[in-house]
Amino acid sequence: MRITPRHGGATQNAIFGTKLRWTMVSSNYALRLIYNPFVPEAFDFSTSDILDWELDLIHTALWREEIKIHPHAFAAAQDEDIPPVALFEAILLGKAVSKDLPDNEQSRKPGINFEYQIPDGRWIRVKVTYFDSHIVITVHTI
After folding, report:
1. Which end of the chain is more exposed for a tag (fewer CB within 10 A), N or C?
2. What CA–CA distances, in Å, run from 99 to 34, 48, 134?
């Protein structure tokens, strides 16, 4: 196996049966992805801090077109006249503002919240969680 490490969100290539491409912060975590491509631990819920590798995984899933939009989030976007593409723009271009941990006092779903100003001037908040893949589970204006 050959790995060409390039840090800071650069694209890396590796040979492991087939050619894989992803964006990572550290080559150590990239090696972990090769051996565990399903990444069941997509978030570190031992801390409320948003970690770089968590964002890298989300952005990689977006780049690979693997982020799904939950029907609830799609319906909420339609109800508030938010274009579906804005959900993905919020993840890619918006700011990761908070992480909801499991079993929180507000009974919120665990995941990372992104805020983004859409072209009509409104601000939206998009939450990304992980159930077998990254999923946008909710969106609303703020």
Report:
1. N
2. 26, 6, 14
pLDDT in tens, the chain (142 residues): 333 333 333 333 332 232 333 333 333 333 333 333 444 578 888 899 999 999 999 999 898 888 899 999 999 999 999 998 999 999 999 999 999 988 888 888 889 999 999 999 999 999 999 887 888 888 999 9
The reply to whether the predicted model has a pTM over 0.85 is: no
Angle at 60 between CA 117 and CA 132, to 5 degrees: 100
Quick one: tokens of 100?
A: 């909801």
